[in-house]
Design brief:
This protein folds into 3 domains: 2-45; 57-126, no CATH class; 143-402, Receptor-associated Protein (Up-down Bundle), CATH 1.20.81. It has 16 helices and 3 strands. The chain has helices at 24-33, 51-57, 62-77, 82-92, 96-110, 115-120, 128-140, 143-199, 206-241, 243-255, 259-280, 285-293, 299-313, 318-323, 331-343, 346-401; strands spanning 2-8, 14-20, 37-43.
Amino acid sequence: MKLKYSARTKTGELQIGFVEAVTKEAAVNILNGHDLYVLSMESMEAPIWYGKFLIFFNRVRRIDLMVFTRQLATMLESAVPLNDALKSLYRNTHNVVLREAIFEISTDIDSGLSLSQSLERHANIFSEFYINLIKSAEITGRIEEAMSFLADYLEKETILVSKVRNAMIYPIFVIVLFVLTAGVLMGLVFPQIEPIFRDANVSLPLITTIFLIIGNFLANWWFAIIFILLIFFILLFDYFQSDEGKVVYDQLLLSSPIIGHLFKQFYVARFADATSILIKGGIPIAQAIEISGHTTTSINYRDALHEVADKIRQGQLLSQSLEEYEFLFPSLVSQMVAVGESTGRLSEMFNRISQFYTREVDNLVNNLVELIQPSLMILIGGLVGLLFAAILLPIYNLVQVF
């Protein structure tokens, strides 16, 4: 099979390429024979259709990584040796994937690798932002401080992501529950009462006729509808996992009226917080901007920040580069960055940007929660009223006949 690998030479240079072998172990042996130290390796063969679902369930959650980072930071600040701290965390970690990764990291460090090199072998767990901050801390000898920064960052990120997710879960749950209830009523109840009105020659209101047509269709074709919807959602999920689908989904999300505004502020807050920490950790500005682009999980933001980093390398000011992407970065961001550039306090200014937009996200989420509940009550109350009217109106006409 064909495998894509990233490895380092004896001189520490990064090398990326492809190798063909029967197994991953055989590929590693081949590369080791060429004096290459393998950092990561992945198969280029198309995964089976359910592979992405397995990856989703077999993953390290953000909260697991946050707890691991906080515990490691606390141990290092207490002067516990790194390897002893990792062995202790290995015994107390419940997530199987993270537990195995901690064991391998500890083994790699015993073999003479640095912490950042060990983390690079688990790029599916530890982000580029995480690894680069540790790498810069190893140069300056401030690993404990870097771990504390990372723990604080992951805690703030977890809280922020949780607030956004919780604001969206409630309306989705209520709408799905109503759709299922309405489907059962129209598919089971309406077809049962139709013969009663037909035998009594009762004229049916338009709304009842519409619901009866929908109900009969659901009663006769429910299995086909479920099958088609299942296939549709599987294909939709698979499409949104492709490169093109990710761009389309991200564009739709950012262009939506209210949710788009929320996610823009959310992405700006994450970008600013990550950039502040990276600059404070000694990462060059262009590289910090590029790395922080991967923390947003947005294709549009990632690509834009890559272009911004290239423009910085060409000599353009960061504030001027951000001005060209006003759709993604409000003018306030570029203005505050310009102040940071002129005063030499760019890291502090990014921290203020992060704090400002984090508060904006909090306020918007709180407002959405307060508005969504009464709005859903009115909407669903109106739809429930239509359902009952479709049943009660013909019953009223039936009583008048008798």
